[in-house]
Amino acid sequence: MKVHPSRRMKEFMTYAFAEVNKAREKAQASGFSVIDFGVGDPTDPLYEGAIEGLQRGAVKYARTGYPSYIGMADFRDSAAQWLQRRFGVDADPDTQVTATAGSKEAIFHFPFSVLDPGDAVLMPSIGYPPYKAGTIFAGCTPSYYGLHEEKGFLPEIDEIEAALKKNDRIRIVWVNYPNNPTTVVAGKTFYEELIEVAQERNVIIASDEAYTEMYLGDRPNSILEFTDDWSNVIVFQSLSKRSNATGLRIGFAVGGKEIIDRYRKLRTQIDSGVPNAIQEAAVWALKDEAHVARMRSSYNAKRDVVGRSLRKAGLKFWAEATFYMWVKVKQSSVAFSKRMLTLDREGKKGINVTPGGTLALSGAPEADSFVRFALVPSLDDTRAAAQLIVHHLEGGKFRSER
To answer: What pLDDT is recorded for position 180?
Structure first.
């Protein structure tokens, strides 16, 4: 018997990713050493305080059975306290905060809690794939607003408003700042205008804020800071990047009471809650900011190293926040990424990056002119990669092909 993928799964067979992965496997099989800037998975260790919290939690909750669907009171309190310290907002941990298994599954599942089949979701043309995947699997239709270089990769409020007027089935608008992959940061004016439009059109703003703690200068804002009425707002936060906790799968959602209530009810049908020991680790991590400052310093050092090499090679890039760099190239992103895997053919060394075309949710052609660097290798490997860039790239092209 041959098992065929479902119709919905077929929409997510990322052939471009598969093509680059196949090229990477071939390069490594041929003896190439590849420095991996592809997947945004930190390689620095989990915050040591979280490890201690995890160990203590394993003992503390050894006989407690299934965890709470909405998260332990201690965890929700810690999340609310962190939101107050960080953004100056007051969230009720009893009614406005709920635990999630990181942000990926939370983002994917959220549409199931507030949408009916046939509804629509407005999202960026370039961005995090679960926005689109969650929409389609919920039986809904993705719609898109543009992220354009000439506009600084910020959405135009007029475009969002026009889309909402044109399609009255749109019930969610996704935003993500600091942005993956473009790295740009949104400010007060953008959020205030978006809030006004969303309230007028009676749509939910879903704000993915996983990268608010990864920045260079001024601290990024949360949309929660710009309105006291959260009735149509939900924010997704995660400890994955903040505390190098991708392996723990812990985060939280915060927003209006009714939205959070509906989302909590959905979660009772999905899983049995985040393990208590993991929540205990998150409680410890949320109370400490020193390790977060060290994380930022580490990524900023690597950003400086790669940035200098890209400038020397004549490549334009964006690196405002997050731990990504959004680099403009002069050929298709897949072709460029495949060639980077064998950048130094004599020394058998290469670099793995993510083709921008794979992040084009709408098939936006402009994304294919970019690649994304995730600054996750060690500083030594980052320096080695920077040397490869300087020696083998010039004016956005490969020296061997000039």
So the answer is: 97
pLDDT at 13 over 70: no
258: domain CATH number? 3.40.640.10
Are 341 and 232 in the same domain?
no
AA letter at 375: L
Task: Give percent of the chain with pLDDT exceeding 70.
Answer: 98
Structure tokens that stand for 50 in this block: 């979280």
Residue in 237, 163, 144 with CA at minimum distance from that of residue 201: 163
Closest among 82, 72, 98, 42 to 245, alpha carbons compared: 42
Give 42-56 pLDDT, tens digit per residue: 889 999 999 999 999
Residue 181 one-letter amino acid = P
Structural domain for 87, as ranges: 48-287
Query: In this predicted model, what pLDDT tens digit does every residue of 293-319 receive, in sequence order?
Result: 999 999 999 999 999 999 999 999 999
- Quick one: 235 and 346 in the same domain? no
Give domain status of residue 1, yes or no: no
Residue 373's DSSP bridge partners are 325
Q: What is the domain count for the chain?
A: 2
In sequence order, which ranges of 61-211 are alpha helices (DSSP H)? 73-87, 104-114, 129-137, 157-166, 188-201
Among 247, 265, 287, which residue terminates a domain? 287
How far is residue 234's CA from residue 223's CA, in Å, rounded to a whole number?
9
The two three-digit tokens of residue 13, written as one number: 């067979």
Q: What is the pLDDT of residues 215-236, one digit of tens each?
A: 998 999 999 999 999 999 999 9
Per DSSP bridges, beta strands 141-145 and 370-374 are: unpaired
Burial of 188 (0-12, 13-18, 19+ CB in 10 A): exposed
Residues 6 or more apart whose CB falls under 8 angstroms from that of 144 comprise 122, 123, 124, 125, 361, 362, 364
- Contacts with 42 (C-beta within 8 Å, 6 or more apart), sequence order: 240, 241, 244, 246, 323, 376
Q: Is there a single domain that holds both residue 205 and residue 329?
A: no
Residue for token pair 């690649």: 371
Tell me, yes or no, whether 261 and 325 share the same domain. Answer: no
Instruction: Give the model confidence (pLDDT) of 50-74 as tens digits.
Output: 999 999 999 999 988 899 999 999 9
**Residue 15 in this model has a pLDDT that exceeds 60:** no
